[in-house]
């Protein structure tokens, strides 16, 4: 059955691909955040495991192609591996349920190793599934067309690529929104089970849709895998060359010609063409090493930025959606506008030149990322080392105060109801404080533990001068754009404080609460109860990634007066500054990735496309392994320096590739095929039984 001139079966295949890509990219969009915030791994381990997973996803396609072509056929391979894939996604969703091991009901899992084990099993199954079906689905779609449907087949591949990007785009918008919801039985936490559960459900739908079209598919029998034949041919040539290494044997034009004793000329010529292209692939993994850091390092970079977008809820990881949106826009723009313009300028923009430009642009994108990182680093707070103490002063009285740090370590004046930033002192040198406010003076000796932040609350009470030390238990900037809030009671009576749905409990006069975590970018209601009087106030918007001490100064009927003292300043570099690096990297992808596959196909015989597809996917896998090696070996403490290192490495590789490309001569596989066809025809005229002999020889191989 057909629809609009297309086989009806391909609509099932396109829906299947859309759901599968939604499932994969949706899970990948929040994966590095799951590692960091749920499994509590640091940035480096999260990045390492993320890239190991991606590398695995691009190594398994070779396995999938061999299984499909030599053993099960494409249909059975897709079905069986999709089942493995769906189980993997389901295991992943289960691994992220914190109530699974949360016996103490405090909102964090008590037995992290259980969650780690489950998620690793899930990821291995997903890598087997997604990688195994990758080479089969598009080829299976192509099999559905008749010989004379070339136009429809090429349009099918365009729609197929569009469905991949549509699935990727929707999932990178939706999954982070799902993750940002709060869910849980005992306590409300980020909703990872939902963020992983929806992709698992879509994978199940993808499987059901694919099986539903079963009766309509044309199912080709497995023909044997060309990769196996090519490998055998290369292996035999090397072995044979090694056997005949003495000088008495004449040299042959190409080392692959040593396979001619066993393999026909056509296969050898085809293998030569493939190896020529695969040799050019050697520098390409470096591009993927940079490209795939969008999902790891760049996502982590975004968590230290100001995510206050007007349209979307903040901290939806919008940057990940920038890439698929730009791809959908840029591919037609580059094809219809940019390339024709370059042609008009009489520039011969060959495929290999396009790939070189792609590498250069990716290198540039990492320079942009480094510049953004330098700006972010300027906004990060400095914490004391083990030998230092940091002191901040809050003046809670109506008189100005002056504090001298003895012996002669400087002094500071603080206005009434004002506060200072943190000052750093060598702990061993600090001996005493001289505090003056109004007409009162007080001298205090100091013994502070090193490596901590402290707040000194000063208040001239008219009767006496109160000096109180508060320990600030904040050792790092709040992550993911959250805010830390504590309250300080500046009233003569005890009060009970609630902010949003979080209770801070009862606070005695001049005492502080613990810090509590709140989502960034929000305004929450503050409720203070004093002697059965309830006072209400709506907090100001506290930005992202900040910490504040909120001082309660007045609570009477309908009036709650507070002052905000900033302990850690909010993120000030806006997430929009990441858009240039994403834009440059997407331009790089358009000229690199699309051209790369096109070039490979144009330079290799039709029956060798699977080998080149495998080689291309292998470059992605190796690229992700390079990230592990470089990030592990570089030991750079500064993130911007790591970005510059990657940019420099790619630039060096880009120059090497440009030299290799300069010496490459383009071939036309169809011409070479036609020559062989002509030769065979001539031989058949001479020996009519040649085909039967050839068929027998092939079956023995």
TrEMBL record:
Major subcellular location class: membrane
Subcellular location: Apical cell membrane; Membrane
Key words, A-Z: Cell membrane, Glycoprotein, Membrane, Peptide transport, Protein transport, Symport, Transmembrane, Transmembrane helix, Transport
Extent of Basic and acidic residues compositional bias: 681-701
Entry GO MF terms: oligopeptide transmembrane transporter activity; symporter activity
Cellular component GO terms, alphabetical: apical plasma membrane
Keyword Isomerase: no
Catalytic activity: L-alanyl-L-aspartate(out) + 2 H(+)(out) = L-alanyl-L-aspartate(in) + 2 H(+)(in); glycyl-sarcosine(out) + H(+)(out) = glycyl-sarcosine(in) + H(+)(in); L-aspartyl-glycine(out) + 2 H(+)(out) = L-aspartyl-glycine(in) + 2 H(+)(in); L-leucyl-L-leucine(out) + H(+)(out) = L-leucyl-L-leucine(in) + H(+)(in)
Membrane topology term: Multi-pass membrane protein
Domain of life according to the entry: Eukaryota
One record GO biological process: protein transport
CDD domains documented for this protein: MFS_SLC15A1 (cd17412)
Annotated segments matching region Disordered: 677-701
Membrane-spanning intervals of the chain: 48-68, 75-94, 114-133, 154-174, 194-213, 273-291, 322-342, 354-374, 610-631, 643-664
InterPro entries: MFS_trans_sf, Oligopep_transport, POT_fam, PTR2_symporter_CS
Purpose of the protein: Electrogenic proton-coupled amino-acid transporter that transports oligopeptides of 2 to 4 amino acids with a preference for dipeptides. Transports neutral and monovalently charged peptides with a proton to peptide stoichiometry of 1:1 or 2:1. Primarily responsible for the absorption of dietary di- and tripeptides from the small intestinal lumen. Mediates transepithelial transport of muramyl and N-formylated bacterial dipeptides contributing to recognition of pathogenic bacteria by the mucosal immune system.
Record family assignment: Belongs to the major facilitator superfamily. Proton-dependent oligopeptide transporter (POT/PTR) (TC 2.A.17) family.
SUBUNIT field: Interacts (via extracellular domain region) with trypsin.
NCBIfam families: 2A1704
Name assigned to this protein: Solute carrier family 15 member 1
């Amino acid at each position: 059955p057909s629809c609009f001139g297309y086989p009806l079966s391909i609509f099932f295949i396109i829906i299947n691909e859309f759901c599968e890509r939604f499932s994969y990219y949706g899970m990948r969009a929040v994966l590095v955040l799951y590692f960091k915030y749920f499994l509590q791994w640091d940035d480096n381990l999260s990045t390492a495991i993320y890239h190991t997973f991606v590398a695995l996803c691009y190594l398994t396609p070779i396995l999938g192609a061999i299984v499909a072509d030599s053993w099960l056929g494409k249909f059975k391979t897709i079905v069986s591996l999709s089942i493995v894939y769906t189980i993997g996604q389901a295991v992943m969703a289960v691994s992220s349920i914190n109530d699974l091991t949360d016996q103490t009901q405090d909102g964090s899992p008590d037995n992290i190793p259980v969650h780690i084990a489950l998620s690793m099993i899930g990821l291995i199954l997903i890598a087997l599934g997604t990688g195994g079906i990758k080479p089969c689905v598009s080829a299976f779609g192509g099999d559905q067309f008749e010989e004379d449907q070339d136009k429809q087949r090429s349009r099918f591949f365009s729609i197929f690529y569009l469905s991949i990007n549509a699935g990727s785009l929707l999932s990178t918008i939706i999954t982070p929104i799902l993750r940002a919801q709060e869910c849980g039985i005992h306590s409300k936490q980020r909703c990872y089970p939902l963020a992983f559960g929806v992709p698992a459900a879509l994978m199940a739908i993808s499987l059901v849709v694919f099986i539903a079209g079963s009766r309509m598919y044309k199912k080709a029998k497995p023909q044997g895998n060309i990769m196996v034949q090519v490998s055998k041919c290369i292996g035999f040539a090397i072995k044979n060359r090694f056997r005949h290494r003495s000088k008495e044997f004449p040299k042959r034009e190409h080392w692959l010609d040593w396979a001619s004793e066993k393999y026909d000329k056509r296969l050898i010529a085809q293998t030569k063409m493939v190896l020529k292209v695969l040799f050019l692939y050697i520098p390409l993994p470096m591009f993927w090493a940079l490209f795939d850091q969008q999902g790891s390092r760049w996502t982590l970079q975004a968590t230290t930025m100001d995510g206050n977008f007007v349209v979307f809820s903040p901290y939806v990881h919008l940057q990940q959606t920038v890439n698929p949106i730009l791809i959908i826009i840029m591919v037609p723009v580059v094809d219809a506008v940019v390339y024709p313009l370059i042609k008009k300028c009489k520039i011969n923009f060959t495929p290999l030149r396009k790939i070189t430009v792609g590498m250069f642009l990716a290198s540039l994108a990492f320079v942009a990322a480094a510049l953004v990182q330098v700006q972010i680093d300027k906004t990060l707070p400095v914490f004391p080392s083990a030998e230092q103490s940091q002191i901040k002063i809050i003046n809670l009285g109506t008189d100005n105060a002056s504090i001298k740090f003895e012996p002669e370590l400087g002094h500071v004046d603080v206005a009434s109801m004002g506060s200072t930033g943190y000052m750093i002192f060598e702990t061993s040198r600090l001996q005493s404080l001289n505090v003056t406010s109004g007409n009162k003076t007080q001298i205090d000796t100091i013994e502070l533990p090193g490596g901590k932040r402290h707040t000194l609350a000063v208040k001239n009470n008219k009767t006496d001068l109160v000096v109180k030390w508060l320990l600030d238990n904040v050792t790092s900037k709040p992550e993911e754009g959250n805010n830390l809030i504590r309250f300080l009671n500046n009233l003569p009576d005890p009060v009970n404080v609630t902010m949003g749905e979080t209770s801070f409990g009862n606070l005695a006069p001049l005492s502080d609460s613990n810090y509590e975590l709140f989502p960034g970018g929000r305004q929450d209601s503050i409720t203070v109860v004093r002697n059965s009087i309830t006072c209400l106030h709506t907090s100001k918007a506290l930005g992202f990634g900040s910490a504040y001490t909120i001082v309660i100064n007045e609570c009477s009927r309908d009036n709650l007066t507070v002052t905000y003292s900033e302990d850690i300043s909010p993120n000030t570099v806006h997430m929009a500054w990441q858009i240039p690096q994403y834009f440059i990297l997407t331009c790089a992808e358009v000229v690199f990735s699309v051209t790369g596959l096109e070039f490979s196909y144009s330079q290799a015989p039709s029956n060798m496309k699977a080998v080149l597809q495998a080689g291309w996917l292998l470059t992605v896998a190796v690229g992700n392994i390079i990230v592990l090696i470089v990030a592990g070996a570089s030991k750079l403490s500064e993130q911007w320096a790591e970005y510059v290192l990657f940019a420099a490495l790619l630039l060096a590789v880009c120059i090497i590739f440009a030299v290799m490309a300069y010496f490459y001569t383009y071939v036309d596989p169809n011409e070479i095929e036609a020559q062989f066809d002509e030769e065979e025809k001539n031989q058949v005229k001479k020996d009519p039984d040649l085909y039967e002999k050839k068929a027998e020889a092939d079956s023995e191989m």
